[in-house]
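R.M. (postdoc): so does anyone remember the format we settled on? I'll just put the structure tokens first.
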């Protein structure tokens, strides 16, 4: 997937990625820094150091059938600080996205994520993250702890001086939906500062 994203970037771009998309954006910057001006990793649990902790049970025991409107609402409520952003339009899009698709996880998916994460960590430790970056995290994210967010920031910042960390109050794993004005201000200010 990283190679596919890298091929699609025609000129240097600012990348903003959420969770697994954040790990992809970080990996693209490591693989092809000449095509990336900056990376914003949002609630990027996929890239955050996780250690050998207890498995996250946020999505344990979902209502059936999976991917129904009720189960989509249930999942969105579990990862949100408040539910004001969960509306009919969002639920319609979630249901449409899952409609008619066989949802299964490839046996190579998890090893691929772990390999990408490992390469990203090695580059940060050895050469340093090659482009300006920032980490944005919701203060009430049930999928990843605030400590994980800070460790991800420290990993990027150790050899990249143009690194920022921002937390957004009253938001969970979807800060761009729960607090869109604050999110937009943070991203805009970061990009303006790089111009």
């Amino acid at each position: 997937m990283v190679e596919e994203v890298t091929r699609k970037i025609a000129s240097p771009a600012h990348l903003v990625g959420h969770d697994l998309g954040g790990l992809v954006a970080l990996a693209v910057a490591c693989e092809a820094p000449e095509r990336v001006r900056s990376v914003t990793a949002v609630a990027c649990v996929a890239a955050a150091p996780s250690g050998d902790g207890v498995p996250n049970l946020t999505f344990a025991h979902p209502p059936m059938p999976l991917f129904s409107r009720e189960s989509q609402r249930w999942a969105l409520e579990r990862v949100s600080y408040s539910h004001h952003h969960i509306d009919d339009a969002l639920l319609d899009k979630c249901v449409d996205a899952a409609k008619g698709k066989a949802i299964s996880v490839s046996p190579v998916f998890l090893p691929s994520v772990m390999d990408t994460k490992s390469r990203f960590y090695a580059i940060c430790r050895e050469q340093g993250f090659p482009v300006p970056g920032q980490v944005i995290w919701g203060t009430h994210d049930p999928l990843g702890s605030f400590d994980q967010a800070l460790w991800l920031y420290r990993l990027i910042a150790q050899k990249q001086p143009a690194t920022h960390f921002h937390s957004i109050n009253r938001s969970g794993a979807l800060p761009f939906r729960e607090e869109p004005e604050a999110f937009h201000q943070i991203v805009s200010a970061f990009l303006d500062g790089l111009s």
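R.M.: ...and that's the designed sequence above, right after the tokens. Also worth knowing: The chain has one domain: 2-54+109-194. The domain at 2-54+109-194 is CATH 3.40.50.1820 (Rossmann fold).
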